[in-house]
Amino acid sequence: MKLHLGEIWHLISNPFFADAMDTALQAIPHGALLVDDAGKIAQIGAAADLIKAHPAIEIVDHGDSLLLPGFIDGHLHYPQLDIIGCYGEQLLGWLNRYTFPTEAQFSDPDIANDTAQRLITELYANGTTTAVLFGSTHASAAATMFQAALDRGLRAIIGKVSMDRHAPVGVLQDVDSDLRDSEALITQWHGRAGRLHYALTPRFVPTCSEALLAGIGQLHARHPDLFVQTHWAENQAEIAWVKELCPADCDYLGVYERHGLLGPKTILAHAIHVDNAMLDRVAAAGAILAHCPTSNLFLGSGLFPLDRVQAHDIRVVIGTDIGGGTSLSLWRTLEETYKVQQLRGKSLTPAQLLYLATLGAATGLGMQDQLGNLLPGKAADFQVVDWRRHRLLAARFTRDLTPDEKLFALITLADDRVTDRVYVQGREVYVQAP
Ligand code: GUN
Ligand code: ZN
């Protein structure tokens, strides 16, 4: 058992509900987290009380630093780490010009492993402890990512990408071998260490034939507990293309529905150009939407209709969508979440923003019993935020600010400079160099 001391902030309820708006963010200025040997939070409270209750315990004193739940990144592409900021174009041009040629290189085990290791370092450096990841087409690269996550403590949902058309041969795979590879990865990795999960990952309709989607649908029917992740309604040219490719379907969503791929563990990334009738169907299926604001701005895709989505009671996670997105930092991603809704005339509160990257995301993934805040019984997945490492934040925090004011300054200014340490299941997985 260990007792971690610091200023604790976390969400204890949903600040999007009017009656919880002012009480959802719990701040404990001189706080303590008691972490048991199984890596779970045993107690949370005032430091003075917990020290008194456990006089002989090992203490880890983080001083004035903040203890926050680890961030959850609900959508990103592991092979795209090194194409962040590739200049120009919207989705389809960007995929053809940069993304597919880069992903083709992931048949090389050295590139796959080097990138997986660097990605985990970047995630931890940004306070992210759970990630929902697309791999490349190659089963070996997905296995490498799983192994890296297993070795280094990351909590992850990972899938090998399935695609068999409209892309260069280096990223395509025929249906039978794709399904065999996916099945083998499920057998080997799904449920490992209690923190690794497999996601069936048809890239999106334009790169998946009818036969491939049907095969993945059958695989899903055999393994209904698997996540499914794909893209939906990101870009107008993409949507027009799907209309051409599937003229008999009522719309883009209808293709996924017809193949049995829309369910309560399906994560649809983007969902920008969507009407209320489509959102009714997403809600009826209980599916999850991944909002990726830095990507949506960078690729000029559009503005996510968060209020309409929430009015339909649809769960939302926030994704960095690397490499269409521009930062691995959930702080930076929350800032853009705020700005996208500002452009739509909606001002999110600091607590609502933090919720989206922590408890809201955990709820989105159905993992709220385990993750999302620092209440007893949850996994001890947390980040130590040392605002002193950022000059402007250090100056700002000397003033008498409320936790909400400090939180909003962090959302606007913080990046990997402030991440001092990261713990997953109570185990230290990252320490910033002094
Ligand atoms: N749609 C299909 N593939 C991708 C991808 O890699 N990134 C984004 N942003 N959208 C996609
Ligand atoms: Zn994506």
Task: Name the structural class.
Answer: alpha/beta
Report the total helices.
16
Mean pLDDT: 98
Number of strands: 16
Low-confidence stretches: none
Which of globular, elongated, flat, extended, rod-shaped describes the shape? Answer: globular
From the alpha carbons, calculate the radius of gyration and give it in angstroms: 21 Å
Alpha carbon gap, first and last residue: 26 Å
> What percent of the residues sit in helical stretches (DSSP H or I)?
25-40%
Strand content: 15-25%
Largest sheet: 9 strands, parallel
Attached small molecules: guanine, zinc ion
Q: Could you provide a short overview of the structure?
A:
With 434 residues, the chain is α/β, with parallel strands linked by helices.
Description of the molecule:
This protein has 434 residues and is an alpha/beta fold. Helix content is 38%, strand content 23%. The protein has 16 helices and 16 strands. The chain has helices at 47-53, 91-104, 109-125, 139-152, 175-189, 210-222, 236-245, 252-258, 276-285, 293-298, 306-311, 330-343, 350-357, 359-364, 391-397, 403-413, and strands at 2-11, 25-35, 41-46, 58-69, 71-77, 128-134, 155-159, 161-162, 196-202, 227-232, 266-270, 288-291, 315-318, 382-385, 419-424, 427-431. Strands 5, 6, 7, 8, 9, 10, 11, 12 and 13 form a 9-stranded parallel beta sheet that branches. Strands 3-2-1-4-14-15-16 form a 7-stranded mixed beta sheet. It is globular, with a radius of gyration of 21 Å. The chain starts with a strand and ends with a strand. 53% of the residues are buried. The site of zinc ion (ZN) has 5 residues, from strand 5.
